[in-house]
Amino acid sequence: MYKDRPYVISIAGFDPSAGAGLLADIKTFEQHQAYGFGVSTAWTVQNDSEFLEIEWMEPAHIIKQLKPLVSKFDIKACKIGLIQNPGVLLEVISFLKSNNPAIKIVLDPVWKASAGYKFNNWDTGLPILKQSLIKIDLITPNLAEMQFLGGSQDVISSARAWAKYCPVLLKGGHHEQNPALDLLFDQDDFYEITPAKVSLYPKHGSGCILSSAIASNLALGLLLPAACKKAKLYIEDYLNSNPTLLGYHKA
């Protein structure tokens, strides 16, 4: 039976291996019964284990890709991944919000490729990034990203400080007894998102997929805590789908 699907968009890098970035996000949107659009922020030369080169898109070209989509479609949610620097990020977010104030925006703050390549065009610190944070609905840093972007080894304190501007999902790796535990900070509210399964195999692009699953769930009408919990179940199945770095998507 025909059923309308919400529109969701990924603004991210193009990874030819399809394990991360735009292609991985589109796979995730489809499995969540959302219709996915994709706008490229960068072209990369890589596979699942090797990152060799990147060519950034100019902000004007990113927005040029966005214009015909936002002018025609009611896009419910957006996932933003690889983006060059805070200035480009703010320009893109401001454009989205000026066209659709209700759009839900999930930011996956990619500053380092899983293969080890560092994107060095990011300035760190809350004063620089808070202009963007106040316009988004969630940021999803892992331990290393929170340490880098927050400028502190104390990731819990950094997450709490950032949560005054937007919700923060601090992904696993920060809990000695349970490294798969995620922590959601939303103003003064706090949620523990516990794993349902043991994740056996690491995957290229798992952070991209988690954030795009959350964006899909928000587009489908779930509240943020429920969207994060459901996305965690999805990523656990993805991580366990096979023993390679490239996982399989399944509903």
Shape: globular
Strand order of the largest sheet: 3-2-1-4-5-6
Mean pLDDT: 91
> Can you give the helix content as a percent range?
25-40%
Number of domains: 1
- Spans of at least 5 consecutive residues whose pLDDT stays below 50 are none
CATH architecture: 3-Layer(aba) Sandwich
Q: Summarize the helix and strand pattern as letters.
A: EHEEHEHEHEHHEEEHH
- Terminal CA distance: 18 Å
- State the secondary-structure class: alpha/beta
The DSSP helix count reads 8
**Quick one: biggest sheet?**
6 strands, mixed
CATH topology: UDP-N-acetylmuramoyl-L-alanine:D-glutamate ligase
How many DSSP E strands?
9
Describe this structure in words.
This protein has 251 residues and is an alpha/beta fold. The protein has eight helices and nine strands. It has a six-stranded mixed sheet. A three-stranded antiparallel sheet has the order 7-8-9, with helices on both faces. Strand 1, helix 1 and strand 2 form a beta-alpha-beta unit. Helix 5 packs across helix 6. The longest helix has 16 residues. The two termini are 18 Å apart.
